Structure formats: structure tokens, C-alpha cells
């Protein structure tokens, strides 16, 4: 079944009055945040024209770790977030609430 069908099936169940468990809702929120962070890292890295290996070297990490982060397969710690922000020459902004996650790298000015 494709992802779009999963989404449609979920929406259909919700429209019929099905209520997700709190655990499922929490897991869905964690996945959204991981995906948002992964996309933000990838977008900033490609904006800078860097490879995963180059970001890894700048951050003192293995290339595989950057791959896992960009694949939303790793949960970064606060020190790792700082290392990534430095490696990507940016500040990291994360805003969270119940229904919305926003992750952004804000480039340091070159002036």
C-alpha cells in the first residue's frame, strides 16, 4: 500500500469517528519532527553545496551519522544539534507545540 493510501485510510477512519490512541498520536508527532529535522539538515547542506562527508568532517562525526540524521533514523542530542549548526554555519531554531513543528537553520551573516 502506498503512503498516500495510508493517509487516505487514516483520514477515512478519523472521519468515521475512530480516535487514535495517545501513544499513536505521540509517535506520529515524533515522526513528523524527525522528518522535519531531516529535511532541514538536507536542505541546508545542499544549499551550502556540501556532501554528507564534508558536513560530517566539519561536525566531527561519521558520514553514516549524517546519513541517519537526514534519513530521520537518528534522534540527535543537544550537543549533536550544536555541532550540526556549527558545521552548517547557522543557528538552529526549533519551535514545537501540539499540532506544529518548525525546524530552521538561520544562516550566519557573512558580513
UniProtKB/TrEMBL annotation:
SUPFAM superfamilies: lambda repressor-like DNA-binding domains (SSF47413). Pfam families: HTH_31 (PF13560). PROSITE patterns: HTH_CROC1. Residues 41-95 form the HTH cro/C1-type domain. Residues 1-27 are annotated as: Disordered. SMART domains: HTH_XRE. It comes from the Bacteria. Gene3D superfamilies: lambda repressor-like DNA-binding domains. This is HTH cro/C1-type domain-containing protein. It comes from Streptomyces olivaceiscleroticus.
Amino acid at each position: 500500500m502506498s503512503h498516500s493510501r495510508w493517509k487516505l485510510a487514516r483520514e477515512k477512519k478519523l472521519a468515521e469517528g475512530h480516535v487514535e490512541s495517545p501513544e499513536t498520536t505521540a509517535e506520529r508527532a515524533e515522526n513528523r519532527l524527525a522528518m522535519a529535522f531531516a529535511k532541514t539538515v538536507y536542505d541546508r547542506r545542499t544549499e551550502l553545496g556540501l556532501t554528507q562527508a564534508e558536513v560530517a568532517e566539519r561536525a566531527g562525526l561519521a558520514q553514516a551519522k549524517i546519513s541517519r540524521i537526514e534519513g530521520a533514523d537518528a534522534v540527535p542530542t543537544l550537543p549533536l544539534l550544536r555541532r550540526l549548526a556549527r558545521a552548517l554555519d547557522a543557528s538552529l531554531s526549533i519551535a514545537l507545540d501540539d499540532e506544529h513543528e518548525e525546524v530552521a537553520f538561520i544562516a550566519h551573516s557573512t558580513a
